[in-house]
Amino acid sequence: MMSKVSWRGWLFVVALIVTLIPLSSVMAQGGQYSGQVVQTFTNCGATQVFGTVADVNGNPKTGVRIRLRSGSDLVYTTTSGTYIRPETDASGWDFSLQGYPVSNTWRVDVVDANNNPLSATVDAVTVGSCNPGDANVVKIRFQEGGAPPPAPTATPGGGGTTPPPNGGGGGTEPAPPITNGARCQFITETNAGGTGGYTVCDDDNAKFLQAYCAYSLQVVGYPVSQRFVRDGFVTQAFQKAIFQWRPDGSYVAYVNVFDELHDRGLDPQLLAARQTPFQLDQVEEETGMTFEEIKARREAWLNDRPAMRSAYFGVADPLLYFGLPTSKIEDMGNHYSIRLQRAVIQQWKEDVPWADAGEVTIANGGDIAKELNHLPAFSLTLEPGVPSNATTATGCNTTPAPTPTPPPSNPPTAGFKYGIQAHMIYADRGQVFNWVNDLGLGWVKQQIEWKVFEPSQNNIAWGEMDLIAASARANNKQLLFSVVGAPGWARESGYDNSVAGPPQNPATFASFLGKVADRYCNNGVGAIEVWNEQNLHYEWGNLTIDPAAYMNLLRPAYNAIKAECPSMIVVSGALTPTGAPAPLAMDDFTYLRGMYANGLKNYADAIGIHPSGYNLPPDIDHTQACTYIQQTNASFTGPCDNPHHSWSFKSTVDGSYTIMQQNGDTSKKLWATEFGWASQNPPFHPDYGYAADNTRQEQASWTVAAYQYMRDSGKVGGAFLWNLNFRVVADGTEKAQWGIVENNGAPTPAYNSLKAMAKP
Length: 760
Prior knowledge:
There is one protein chain. This protein is 24% helix and 21% strand. The chain is of the alpha+beta class. The protein has three domains: 5-153, no CATH class; 154-399, no CATH class; 417-756, TIM Barrel. It has an eight-stranded parallel β-sheet with strand order 28-27-26-25-24-31-30-29. Strands 1, 2, 4, 5, 8, 10 and 11 form a seven-stranded antiparallel β-sheet that branches. Helix 13 (506-520) packs parallel to helix 14 and helix 14 (547-564) crosses helix 15. The N and C termini lie far apart (78 Å).
């Protein structure tokens, strides 16, 4: 590979054959440049450009890249966004100009095979008419020296703001020092909480802290580098994004990380290390399309996996956060994957340590850039703390809570609460509430994983919770937040990371719940459920299952919630109906009695239960269960093989209420925070064989009968059907078997029956 100096004296000819749409001139700007922009001309309205790179004798040259800019946007060679592929033979290069205005000014960059800028100056330009077959010839002479080009003008918007790639940090330099009076947050999480970390600041050079807080920790992740300067812009890498400050527009742009990695030829490494699909060449197929047509075409690639599509459109601005898809969904063995300009979305076919089967995860672009040496080495040096000339910002609580709205005169908390559980995190919240409104329900349950929203102590990422609460307020609905899963920093030493578990110190959980209650008091959230199915080993960290230990968690949590929001309904963690032995589980009736023995009556407004139906209708109690199984020739015979109250919806409701009465807790109601019937033949998972016995019509009629029984019994105050949209967000998993909308959003018989059910 030649150095910059060794290019001196060469003369190259770039032949540009511009197809489609007539007219306009090509204008040259002379003068030497020691960097990138060496030629300016005006787009002829073309949609595609072809050409070759040759020396003065017409011999094809290798190891050279020619890049084309529109403003600061780099026009992509194979998929619509960034760079022209390197010359390796005489077949030439091509790139699409689609989606850019005809009036745009275009500029040429010349770099070597490693994307290092080559000094060059324009030698001559021959202008054609822009008609098909006519040639516009741009001659570029490489030589060293001259003044650097002006900084490119930024183009507002989410996509296409990527700087040229500088692999391994090449072409970068340290950022200017933080200016006096800056506001900074010092974050150590990507150093495993050690003494070193990275600062995220707002100062005169860049305002990354406000963007970090505004976009939320869930969207951005923690910082993985210091600031550095790339291509004239202050830049900083985070786990899930790379920020670039645009001073002329005073905003933060996202870098197209995966486009840059593709341009560096790192697709094979991405496939090997992260099972990332290769980027597709779509120039030929998309020639002649408008940008909106290209956008619609790419977004349609997500339709094959509704849960992945839901994750993509679940953010406020998919183009800003993710960019466009640059591959189709591919089967990678144990998961499905689609590559985007700034992320990779994956849906898992089987349980893995970081996700359940059917769950959708998003690969962190910043982490991957760091892993593949795409960040300059000097920027990875840990910092000791906030500079002495800056002030320290505390967390991201600078973002104000949404303004509370006064509760209605007849609040939906009065009377029986008709609810349903949905998944709205990074999902289509608007569609969820369209369904809920259509069903005539007043409450929606969302599970909140504490470990996701407070991954480091006192660093709460409110973004998705705020959006869900805002959607609930806009639709006059109330939310039940069911809060589970302690983050690693709060768990015991040597904890089992393969399962969810409680915190070592209950006060840390109480602190989080108090802040949630304060933020959403009379502001979208009407109730908080404190944990979930704590009588199962994998919900209790594989620790000893102990109702006294759970009550040690519930007591401070209840007090913290009530201190911040006296009107918030506190629901005790719902028990799963089970007869499984220790150490796997504890009988739910035994566990509930243990909770009462440790003070439950004084620390809950409602008692959570999960009355499951299995393959029995809701009016059959457990003493009748085996007879029903035999009469219907059911394939799943659990109620006969192991008789127990937990097989019966009715027995679970009635037995739980009896325990409340026995403990003098008759002023309260049960809340069925999950109930329902799976229907799927064959089942999506072998452990759920009873789903094959239940027809869709039985699912529908039993669901309505269960709501009616709970309402009319006087024992239950709130009932939340499991579930609304898991056939959409987790299709093919065991959770989807309970869903009442199909994976394409169409209603099931259960949906239609619930919609038609009277809800007094």
